[in-house]
Design brief:
The chain has 312 residues and is α+β, with helices and mostly antiparallel strands. It is 19% helix and 21% strand. The strands form two sheets. Strands 1, 4, 5, 8, 9, 10, 12 and 13 form an eight-stranded mixed beta sheet that branches. It is globular. It binds the ligand Nc1nc2c(c(=O)[nH]1)N[C@H]1C(S)=C(S)[C@@H](COP(=O)(O)O)O[C@H]1N2 and molybdenum atom.
């Protein structure tokens, strides 16, 4: 970035990586993997029976990046600024016990033990494009649930216009927080309609397994049409507010990292182009970056009438 560059799931529900890939190969052939399609186990089964559709392969198939690449090439400055640092330095990070505070303009503010927070959640598997502002990308099979389900449960007041997410502050466990590479803790925020969008997830896993620490365990946000930095790892607080919150990267370098940070190949970062991306794994080929990261059909209407050059 700005820096010199550089709940337990029953085992019966855990899909092995190979299993996952096998099913995905089939689904891909069936052409059913579209943007933001939620893949529940029953859907996977139903799709697998649908031989007829196997003929029409999707043009824009989403091929998941390997588990190895997803879990060793990370941005998580609390655990270091090199891509391989988080997988090394987050190994012993303790995510139990874990409390999530919900506060601000909300009818049911509370400190939730993570288990209670997750109890009502119906976990789903979703394969999303993941585009970092540094112009690289992956495809990640997340496990999680729509943020809107949680928002509905806690009942924000009508005056709430934004939701803010805060990462854990724990310099004893997070070596990066002992330096000032960023102001800590890491904070991000979404407009309420973005937070309520069905594509927006609270993720607790990937590849059908619990989230590895380096990917944001035990809980993180995923907003697939935005640059990766809009997603907050290791969330301890969700606050509803009527004012646009101050967010970490936007505060550090507002001319480089906008509040919206929607993936947009036509608006370059001041120091590099955003028109293409390096695909992590598979030879690091380059591909064209898609408007809203390929989710324009689903999300473009959220920004109608907005100047996306100003609101980058
Ligand atoms: N707390 C915290 N969250 C964070 C970051 C971070 O440094 N700290 N990096 C962001 C950036 S720049 C990206 S691209 C994604 C990376 O997620 P991944 O490592 O799972 O690919 O996490 C985002 N969330
Ligand atoms: Mo990023």
């Amino acid at each position: 970035m700005q820096i010199r560059k550089g709940g337990q799931i029953p085992s019966s529900e855990i899909t092995s990586e190979q299993d996952y890939l096998d099913r995905r190969t089939f689904l891909r052939a069936a052409g059913v993997l579209g943007a933001g399609l939620a893949l529940t186990p029953s859907m996977l089964a139903a799709c697998a029976r649908d031989d007829a559709r196997a003929a029409g392969a999707s043009q824009d198939a989403l091929v998941p990046t390997s588990y190895e690449d997803i879990t060793t090439y990370n941005n998580y400055y609390e655990f270091g600024t090199d891509k391989e640092d988080p997988s090394e330095n987050a190994k012993g990070f303790r995510t139990k016990p874990w409390t999530v505070r919900v506060d601000g303009l909300v009818k049911k503010p509370a400190d939730y033990a993570l288990e209670d927070f997750l109890k009502p959640a119906k976990l789903e598997d979703r394969v999303y494009r993941h585009r970092c502002v540094e112009a690289w990308s992956m495809v990640i099979p997340w496990r999680g649930f729509p943020l809107r389900d949680l928002i509905a449960r806690v009942e924000p007041s009508p005056s709430a216009k934004f939701v803010e997410f805060t990462t854990k502050l724990d310099p004893a466990q997070m070596p990066g927080q002992r330096g000032n590479v960023l102001p800590w803790p890491y904070v991000e925020a979404l407009r309420m309609d973005e937070a309520m969008h069905p594509l927006t997830l609270l993720a607790t896993g990937l590849y059908g397994k619990p989230l590895p620490n380096q990917n944001g365990a035990p809980l993180r946000t995923i907003i697939p049409w935005k640059y990766g930095f809009k997603g907050t790892k290791a969330i301890v607080r969700i606050r509803f507010t009527d004012r646009q919150p101050t967010t970490t990267w936007n505060a550090v370098a507002p001319n480089e990292y906008g509040f919206y940070a929607n993936v947009n190949p036509t608006v370059d970062h001041p120091r590099w182009s955003q028109s293409k991306e390096r695909v992590i794994g598979g030879g690091w080929r380059k591909k064209e970056t898609l408007m809203f990261n390929g989710y324009a059909n689903e999300v473009a209407s959220l920004y109608s009438g907005m100047d996306l050059r100003r609101n980058y």
